[in-house]
TrEMBL record:
Gene3D superfamilies: NADH Oxidase. Belongs to the nitroreductase family. This is Nitroreductase. Residues 13-222 form the Nitroreductase domain. InterPro entries: Nitroreductase (IPR029479), Nitroreductase-like (IPR000415). The keyword Oxidoreductase applies. It comes from Flavobacterium frigoris.
Length: 245
């Protein structure tokens, strides 16, 4: 489904604000769904796509999520919510999906006929990625971390090998997708508010998620009330965060 974008990317970024009070106006479900599809085009570490998106439109579920989000205005007045979930636990499934896709691109042929580049890509998903993601109660991750630090004395090496590091990787990718979603919504004059204030355990129970799933953020969606934008946008001076070397 193609949507006519009313704003350019730059205009959408300028327009987007964290809106905390929404009008009592319905959103087009398909337009929101399309913005979620655009979210899935965000960059993601190793193309693992360790994310899920839940579009909440049912009043009963919205009410439960509002309570789990401490009844804050951005939840209480939202016409819909989108819950972004990080799923590091699905890494084996995503590895297989990537391997299957690569083989479909390379064509049916014996492994010996793969090019050097094709062999490297398959090896990356069949050996390197599992080495990074596989762990056992944090012990293997700690050992990998120690080994990588020693190797790093002699040459550059990827150092984020602990279970906590891989959780951060999955969360970063999910956040990139969330930003894609919010900019896409802004482009069609829909508003959003990313929320981190919620009871994650209750949210997972409401959505019937497994314990290994992690809530990245809940995004309230709607059309802004003028009072819903709390003041002018504040950013520290650009010179404090920009460095050119």
């Amino acid at each position: 489904m193609d949507l006519i974008k009313e704003k350019s990317v730059s205009e959408a970024i300028q327009y987007r604000r964290s809106v905390r009070v929404f009008k009592n106006e319905a959103l087009d479900n398909e337009k929101v769904k399309e913005c979620i599809r655009l979210a899935t085009l965000a960059p993601t570490s190793s193309n693992m796509q360790l994310w899920e998106f839940y579009q909440i439109t049912t009043p009963e579920v919205l009410e439960k999520l509002t309570q789990a989000s401490f009844n804050q205005n951005a939840a209480k007045t939202a016409r819909q919510m989108v819950v972004v979930v990080a799923r590091k636990d699905l890494w084996r499934k995503r590895v297989q999906s990537n391997v299957s896709f690569l083989k479909s691109q390379y064509g049916e042929k014996p492994p010996a006929d793969y090019s050097k580049r094709e062999k490297f890509a398959l090896n990356y998903y069949q050996k390197i990625v599992p080495t990074l993601y596989f762990d056992f109660i944090g012990i293997l991750g700690a050992l990998k971390f120690l080994v990588f630090q020693i190797i790093g004395i002699f040459k550059p090496i990827y150092r984020q090998a602990r279970r906590s590091d891989m959780r951060i990787v999955a969360q970063k990718s999910a956040a990139l997708a969330a930003q894609n979603f919010m900019i896409s919504m802004a482009a069609i004059n829909y508003d959003t508010c990313p929320m981190e204030g919620f009871d994650s355990l209750r949210v997972k129970k409401i959505l019937n998620l497994p314990s290994a799933a992690e809530i990245n953020m809940i995004i309230g969606c709607g059309i802004r009330e003028e009072s819903g934008v709390y003041g002018e946008r504040f950013r520290v001076p650009f010179e404090e965060v920009y460095f050119k070397l």
